[in-house]
Design a protein that fits this description.
Blueprint (H helix, E strand, L loop, with lengths): L2 E13 L4 E3 L4 E2 L3 E18 L6 E4 L2 E3 L4 H4 L2 H11 L4 E9 L9 H15 L6 H11 L11 E4 L12 E5 L7 E7 L9 H11 L3 H20 L3 H20 L10 H15 L6 E3 L6 E6 L3 H9 L6 E6 L5 E3 L5
Parallel strand pairs: 5-7
Antiparallel strand pairs: 1-4, 1-14, 2-3, 4-7, 4-8, 5-6, 8-9, 10-12, 10-13, 11-12
Helix pairs in contact: 2-4, 3-4, 6-7
Ligand DP6 binds next to helix 5.
Length: 334
């Protein structure tokens, strides 16, 4: 039977990716670095069979077909998997997001990573994590990093065909058991500007992008050193700077892109004020949406959760530790 199920976890970038040098292959301008999250994951079952009339993806109960956004992200990896395996039958995929909250945190990375792992296995392909990371990248850039637990670096690469643009694990899941991410959900609405369209516009119009492009490789190199030394303060400072550079280039895009909601700004100010007085040590990050994520160590989780829960507009606080590698499961969703 050509059927397999995989589970992959979401990741959050400490050093951000924003902007493609090749849009079709999804090749970034610079490396990024992320932590995989234990609390957020996607499980996906894929089957190839003549029984199915057409390819489809059922995502949390809703069905998508070719031509629809959620499905189209999977087209490039799927066609490569078909090419490499010779599998010609139609595909059915069923996917379930396990996030402790209704919305607000990106599931496209975990979803795409779980999909390529399940689809490759269902097609009988025996491929390495590196090759799976390349396949996931073709679906969504940040998904390349969800092929690894712990901390991972996505190498931008230099080749035009993308053969050297994949993620690699830097630190395993159990190597930093005290590391935490506190996610503050401030809005459950869909994002106003999708990251794909947003980053394209930033590259085309932001006068600040060139400067960030020069700085990003230096940040990644310094971050790798801090990570190897488990130097949380240095890691947090560079991560917060990468967040600031990302959102500065977003805001300097024409037309400007602003993902921050009033409550996001309140959370940021709360964390910064408490850090200044030495109450706790947390570092801010945000992606293409209003949720604020705080990097911290286990001993500060309670104080940080209490402080951000008191901010008006914060709907939910979710704490995650470092997540595992993706895995194949023997139980299928259909
Ligand atoms: C802000 O990976 O969602 O989260 O490659 O177009 O699918 P595509 O974009 P996506 O962008 C993620 C951008 C980010 C930063 C990051 O995760 O590094």
């Amino acid at each position: 039977m050509k059927k397999a199920t995989a589970r992959a976890h979401a990741n959050i970038a400490l050093a951000k990716y924003w902007g493609k040098r090749d849009e079709a292959l999804i090749l970034p301008y610079f490396d990024s670095l992320s932590v995989t999250l234990d609390a957020f994951f996607t499980t996906t079952s894929v089957e190839f069979s003549d029984v199915f009339e057409e390819d489809s993806l059922e995502l949390d109960g809703e069905i998508f077909r070719a031509g629809e956004k959620e499905f189209d992200r999977l087209l490039a990896p799927l066609s490569h998997i078909r090419e490499q395996s010779g599998v010609a039958e139609s595909m059915r995929a069923v996917s379930k997001n396990d996030v402790p909250t209704a919305a607000g945190l990106a599931s496209s990375a975990s979803g795409t990573a779980a999909f390529v792992m399940a689809a490759a296995a269902a097609a009988g392909l025996n491929v390495s994590s590196k090759e799976l990371s390349i396949l996931a990248r073709m679906g969504s850039g940040s998904a390349s990093r969800s092929l690894f637990g712990g901390f991972a670096q996505w190498h931008a690469g230099t080749q035009n065909d993308g053969s050297d643009s994949f993620a690699e694990q830097l630190v395993e899941q159990d190597e930093w058991p005290e590391f935490r991410v506190v996610a503050c959900i401030v809005s459950k609405k869909q994002k106003k500007v999708a990251s794909r369209a947003g980053m394209k516009q930033t590259v085309a119009t932001s006068p600040l992008y060139e400067g960030w492009k020069q700085q990003a490789p230096l940040d990644v190199a310094a971050m790798k050193q801090a990570l190897a030394a488990k130097d949380f303060t240095t890691l947090g400072q560079i991560a917060e700077s990468s967040f600031a550079q990302l959102h500065a280039t977003m805001l300097s895009t024409n037309p400007p892109i602003l993902y921050m909601a009033p409550a996001s700004v309140e959370v940021i100010n709360t964390i910064w004020a408490a850090r200044e007085t030495g109450e706790f040590e947390g570092y801010i990050t945000m992606d293409a949406g209003p949720q604020v994520k705080i990097f911290c160590l286990a001993h500060d989780v309670e104080a940080i959760s209490t402080a951000v829960s008191a901010v008006s507009g914060v709907q939910e606080v979710v704490v995650s530790s470092v997540g595992p590698d993706p895995t194949l499961l023997s139980e299928h969703l259909f």
